[in-house]
Amino acid sequence: xxxxxxxxxxxxxxxxxxxxxxxxxxxxxxxxxxxxxxxxxxxxxxxxxxxxxxxxxxxxxxxxxxxxxxxxxxxxxxxxxxxxxxxxxxxxxxxxxxxxxxxxxxxxxxxxxxxxxxxxxxxxxxxxxxxxxxxxxxxxxxxxxxxxxxxxxxxxxxxxxxxxxxxxxxxxxxxxxxxxxxxxxxxxxxxxxxxxxxxxxxxxxxxxxxxxxxxxxxxxxxxxxxxxxxxxxxxxxxxxxxxxxxxxxxxxxxxxxxxxxxxxxxxxxxxxxxxxxxxxxxxxxxxxxxxxxxxxxxxxxxxxxxxxxxxxxxxxxxxxxxxxxxxxxxxxxxxxxxxxxxxxxxxxxxxxxxxxxxxxxxxxxxxxxxxxxxxxxxxxxxxxxxxxxxxxxxxxxxxxxxxxxxxxxxxxxxxxxxxxxxxxxxxxxxxxxxxxxxxxxxxxxxxxxxxxxxxxxxxxxxxxxxxxxxxxxxxxxxxxxxxxxxxxxxxxxxxxxxxxx
Length: 501
Hints:
Blueprint: H1 4-16, H2 21-28, H3 32-37, H4 61-71, H5 82-92, H6 98-113, E1 131-143, E2 146-157, E3 163-168, H7 173-187, E4 193-196, E5 203-206, E6 212-214, H8 216-225, E7 228-231, H9 241-254, E8 259-261, H10 264-278, H11 291-298, E9 313-318, E10 324-327, E11 330-333, E12 342-347, E13 351-356, E14 359-365, E15 373-374, H12 381-386, H13 390-393, H14 395-398, H15 404-413, H16 419-433, H17 435-448, H18 453-464, H19 489-496
Parallel strand pairs: 1-4, 1-8, 4-7, 11-15
Antiparallel strand pairs: 1-2, 2-3, 5-6, 9-12, 10-11, 12-13, 13-14
């Protein structure tokens, strides 16, 4: 049933302005019989339908209500949207429309939560290349078979609505740096401004009004990429409403049901691919074009950059007597010559780098568990040279993933007298020539059936011996014209004492 204001507009436009019934029907998206029906209606409608019937949903209402009652006790991030509930009902055999499910869910929520008030906002317009919005969200995924809560960095170009997301185990400053590096590489440039919440990795202090004291290390990144950081008013999410909406959409599109991947690298590769695929959706304000088409116009207006920001957090630590430094409750090894000395540890989103005297002395893949020991066995080789017995029970060597042939030779040598020292001598040579050469030497020794340190060392030396020089061809001027002849008789004269000078 049409409302009285629509009926009044139909009558005014036809009877006063003289518009045709077809023009009014096209303008108001009504059928011509409906327009014709209300041309002579002046009284208030007697009937106004209070509830939309849903005959096809009827038998599924019990199932839908049971799902809603169950999921209301779950965290908000794990509850299904009306669209997901509709898809679930289709699996159960429902053949009705989505609108019926949406109305049922809305009515159920209004009964549970009571009436809500709608807050008014001002629509915002952004120029191409002007602004990008940033935010974090918490999502639930399964990484390498382990369910866990991860942090997802969200970026959204305000003009084109092109988005980028990347997943991390934590929400720390080095993750913020890495996320910006990935996002700007994905966009192919840098916007003029980036809009943030007042997260600690960005803002150190909130001053009067819009004044902020930004983190110095964060400002180093902003100066590197030459963008202006803008911090929102506290508790005013509407100032970056696009990214607030994106968080909910991405949770529905990408993390429901739970995503499962072998590693964060595999997850992030998939997220980047899905961001490109989702850019084919229609633009929210100019529906005749896609997000990708708008981004194609915006991308040339982004500021190009030549190098990514070296986003690490640095701290000075002293290596222990066991050649370890502690970072985030985990221990990482350094070369033995730096035991007991101060070193600089640089933590990125994916690596732990150790620097001393201006040179990098160690590099490890970063771990995010607790009480883990991450050792490079080569760091302890100089200790083994003096204490070869540590080869049997030393933590860096017990779980050393050596090639099969080298492992077999090691096991055999350790059963022989002074075999540990013999194997250490092989490792000292392998440090210079590489494990590949030692592996071949061990394979040759195993083929012979006789395994001892001398035999393997001989094979290793033979494999790594420098190539013999190419025989030189002398020019004709240096060649002897009369070559000396050997005279064995002179040796007999020496023996008989008859040789005369």
